[in-house]
């Protein structure tokens, strides 16, 4: 009987080198180079779809196979538990053994927690410390803020939590925060609140999520013997998604790499899109300077997308200055060009995009291969409504559907109590939102009285106020709310329901509540409320709108694996689809004007990386849309195509304006590749494009005269396909302000107007 063949893992554990393993044959040349470059610092610059995960897991297996390290001597760091599980499974499949001994593979936070529990006393904790969730963190911060006599409504715990998270991402404890750093909270009290909060955490033997890394960093910096223990332990280090590391993670890694210097990081500078949550693209850009003798290996052969998609994405991203540089390519030539369509407005965009999905389905019979990727969640509403209208299955990835979002449900509840005294569920929802001193005990008393009397909650509450059965803050809060509701009902007779909704949200304090909330989610909630008001304006009255919302909520398609995916571009990273729809490529939408205002050119480059990520999600077809008009904050505005549109290479793009783009039917003569994509806009647009390249767009726009740009002048009567007849009240270059007879005041590009 022959002896059984030993497992590779057994040979590796014995420290014996083995013959060249078969798994290397499945790699292309750069992938193999990245796997076999085991010693010293290595940066694997892995473009989208180039086999990053395969390289990372094969490298791990190769370290074991070649006897370079035992499983417990390799530190492998990921950003998600899902990525860690996938790596374990793949490594086990490659080496033919279980992963029980692969003990140091996990997320930054899970590995830090393990180290911290062993040495907790050295940072003032006990080993059985608890990790606070977000709710517990906010409750503790609220206690600290109140104890410092700070107005908790104006300076919210969520705002402070966001600041603290930012400081911890940068590796800054309370002792490193200056008064100027803390000025963003309560007029300079932020640093003090942070210090008290950290002290309270230690008293409670607790940490928040950011502490796991910060305390471990402090542990290493203040205890050389502890750091030496781990630098000896980890002979090799592997890091996934290195472009997403923040400063604290970067410092953590640099300290651990001091020992062997065998650090391999895998990432893509062109996919660094999380700057808003602390990621530092500079970490990957300066890798060669930080680690002397580092090798940079580029993975550029893409196994996902067509030649045209890759060429379009690669050309677009070259406009960024802060990048290491690489060009994606594929062995499979041809495929469909990237389509760029100009549409009239958001409604036309949703119709055209869903039509494309239906055409796709008619040939492939698969919705699951289709995705709509938006820059901001507020853009989802129009697509959701169109999908529901046609009964197509879809799912919102990374969040609830538009009409299921917390802020939208709250706004609907306010409008429902204005419409009816009998809507108990709506009243319960908004009675103490925002806070009015109406606690659970008061609501329970009202419910008991309502049931015993057979009355709606609002009627019962009014009776209890009159009878003195409710007192204190609850009485004051309810009385003020009922007074507001009566006022809104009177205004409903004079205002259209969209304007009424704005008034209700403002006067109730609901909008102010989210304005005071400085968390990253708050801005999105405010944008969704504005989108909600816009949606209301499309209906004749409030009753019709509320009925529509009720029907939309009920008309669900049920569970199904074959669903269209609707998500933000940020949520799409790491995913891929055969057909990708990319709507809203207009200035101010994408790139986001808010991001540009806050961070300038740095934000612009991150926005462009986001566009690159969106394009490289597509395997077979990518379709970009930009609109001529958008309803922004309740007002129609003419908008310009995104600068990213004109950064695409014409030879890889099929560009045309959809029927009706110019405000008239049948003008669809721009499908040739030779036609400039930007020609879809006003006559002055090409001049503006030229000026933009020389960074003089604003000055050039001011120089455009009436005769050059439009041929219109103030006082002229004009006609518009959507808004009807009106008169120009002011003109600025190729933009005109028009007082329409029925649609009110609008600002439009003059190429959409006809003289009468």
Description of the molecule:
By secondary structure, the chain is an alpha/beta fold. It has 5 domains: 8-114 and 216-301, 3-Layer(aba) Sandwich (Rossmann fold); 130-204, Arc Repressor Mutant, subunit A (Orthogonal Bundle); 313-393 and 562-681, Rossmann fold (3-Layer(aba) Sandwich); 403-551, PCRA, domain 4; 682-756, SH3 type barrels (Roll), CATH 2.30.30. 45% of the residues lie in helices and 14% in strands. It has 31 helices and 22 strands. The chain has a 7-stranded parallel beta sheet. A hairpin with a 3-residue loop joins strand 18 (717-720) and strand 19 (724-732). The longest helix is centred in the last third of the chain and has 23 residues, at 593-615. The model is unreliable at 1-9, 554-558 and 662-709 (pLDDT under 50).
Descriptive key words:
756 residues, alpha/beta, Rossmann fold, Arc Repressor Mutant, subunit A, 5 domains, 7-stranded parallel β-sheet, 6-stranded parallel β-sheet, 22 strands, 14% strand, globular
Strand and helix layout:
Blueprint: H1 8-13, H2 29-36, E1 42-46, H3 52-65, E2 74-78, H4 81-95, E3 105-107, H5 108-118, E4 130-131, H6 134-147, H7 157-169, H8 190-203, E5 206-207, H9 209-222, H10 224-233, E6 236-239, H11 247-256, E7 263-267, H12 282-285, H13 287-290, E8 295-299, H14 307-317, E9 338-343, H15 346-364, E10 370-374, H16 380-390, E11 394-396, H17 406-419, H18 424-430, H19 440-453, H20 457-466, H21 472-491, H22 497-507, H23 510-516, H24 520-536, H25 542-554, E12 564-568, H26 569-572, E13 577-582, H27 593-615, E14 618-627, E15 629-632, E16 635-638, H28 643-646, E17 653-657, H29 685-693, H30 697-703, H31 706-709, E18 717-720, E19 724-732, E20 735-740, E21 744-749, E22 754-755
Parallel strand pairs: 1-7, 1-8, 2-3, 2-6, 4-5, 6-7, 9-14, 9-17, 10-12, 10-13, 11-12, 13-14
Antiparallel strand pairs: 15-16, 18-19, 18-22, 19-20, 20-21
């Amino acid at each position: 009987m022959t002896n059984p063949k030993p497992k590779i893992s057994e040979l590796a554990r014995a420290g014996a080198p083995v013959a060249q393993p078969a798994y290397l044959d499945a790699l292309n040349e750069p992938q193999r180079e990245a796997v076999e470059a085991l010693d010293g610092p290595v940066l694997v610059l892995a473009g989208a779809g180039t086999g990053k995960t395969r390289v990372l897991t094969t490298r791990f297996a190769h370290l074991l196979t070649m006897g370079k390290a035992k499983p417990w001597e390799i530190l492998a760091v990921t950003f998600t538990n899902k990525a860690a599980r996938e790596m374990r499974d793949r490594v086990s499949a490659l080496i033919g053994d279980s992963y029980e001994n692969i003990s140091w593979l996990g997320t930054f936070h899970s590995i830090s927690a393990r180290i911290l529990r062993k040495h907790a006393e050295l940072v003032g904790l006990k080993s059985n410390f608890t990790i606070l969730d977000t709710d517990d963190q906010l409750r503790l911060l609220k206690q600290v803020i109140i104890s410092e006599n700070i107005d908790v409504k104006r300076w919210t715990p969520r705002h402070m939590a966001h600041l603290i998270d930012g400081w911890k991402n940068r590796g800054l404890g309370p002792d490193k925060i200056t008064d100027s750093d803390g000025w963003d909270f309560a007029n300079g009290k932020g640093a003090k609140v942070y210090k008290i909060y950290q002290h309270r955490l230690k008293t409670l033997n607790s940490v928040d999520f950011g502490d796991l890394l910060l305390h471990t960093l402090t542990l290493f910096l203040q205890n050389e013997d502890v750091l030496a223990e781990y630098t000896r332990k980890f002979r090799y280090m592997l890091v996934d998604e290195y472009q997403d590391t923040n400063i604290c993670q970067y410092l953590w890694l640099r300290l651990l790499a001091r020992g062997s210097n065998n650090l391999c990081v895998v990432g893509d500078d062109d996919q660094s899109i999380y700057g808003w949550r602390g990621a530092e693209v500079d970490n990957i850009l300066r890798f060669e300077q930080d680690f002397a003798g580092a090798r940079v290996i580029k993975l550029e052969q893409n196994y996902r997308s067509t030649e045209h998609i890759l060429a379009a994405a690669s050309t677009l991203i070259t406009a960024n200055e802060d990048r290491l540089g690489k060009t994606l390519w594929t062995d499979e030539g041809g495929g469909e060009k990237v389509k760029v369509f100009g549409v009239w407005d958001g409604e036309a965009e949703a119709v055209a995009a869903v039509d494309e999905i239906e055409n796709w389905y008619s040939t492939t019979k698969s919705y699951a291969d289709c995705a709509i990727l938006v820059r901001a969640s507020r853009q989802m509403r129009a697509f959701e409504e169109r999908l529901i209208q046609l009964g197509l299955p879809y799912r919102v990835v990374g969040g609830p559907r538009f009409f299921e979002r917390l802020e939208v449900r709250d706004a609907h509840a306010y409008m429902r109590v204005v419409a009816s005294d009998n809507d108990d569920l709506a009243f319960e929802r908004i009675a103490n939102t925002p806070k009015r001193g109406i606690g659970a005990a008061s609501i329970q008393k009202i419910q008991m009285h309502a049931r015993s009397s057979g009355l709606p909650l609002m009627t019962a509450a009014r009776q209890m106020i009159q009878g003195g059965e409710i007192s204190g803050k609850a009485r004051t809060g309810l009385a003020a709310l009922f007074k507001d509701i009566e006022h809104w009902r009177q205004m409903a007779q004079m205002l259209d329901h969209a304007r009424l909704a704005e008034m209700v949200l403002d006067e109730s304090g609901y909008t102010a509540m989210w304005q005071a909330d400085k968390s990253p989610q708050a801005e999105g909630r405010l944008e969704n409320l504005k989108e909600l008001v816009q949606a209301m304006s499309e209906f004749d009255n409030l009753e019709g709108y509320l009925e529509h919302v009720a029907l939309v909520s009920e008309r669900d398609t049920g569970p199904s694996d074959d669903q269209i995916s609707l998500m933000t571009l940020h949520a799409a990273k790491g995913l891929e689809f055969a057909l990708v729809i990319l709507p809203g490529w207009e200035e101010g939408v994408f790139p986001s004007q808010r991001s540009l205002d806050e961070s300038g050119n740095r934000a612009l480059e991150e926005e462009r990386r986001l566009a690159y990520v969106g394009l490289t999600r597509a395997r077979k077809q990518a379709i970009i849309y930009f609109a001529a008009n958008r309803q922004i904050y309740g007002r129609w505005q003419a908008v310009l195509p995104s600068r990213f549109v004109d950064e695409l290479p014409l030879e890889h793009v099929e560009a045309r304006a959809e029927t009706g783009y110019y405000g008239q039917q049948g003008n669809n003569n721009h499908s040739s590749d030779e036609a400039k994509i930007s020609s879809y806009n006003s006559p002055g647009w090409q001049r503006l494009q030229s000026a933009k390249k020389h960074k003089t767009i604003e000055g050039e726009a001011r120089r455009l005269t009436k005769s050059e740009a439009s041929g219109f002048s103030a006082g002229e009567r004009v006609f518009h396909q959507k808004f009807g007849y009106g008169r120009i009240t002011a003109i600025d270059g190729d933009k005109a302000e028009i007082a329409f007879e029925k649609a009110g005041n609008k600002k439009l590009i003059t190429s959409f107007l006809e003289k009468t």
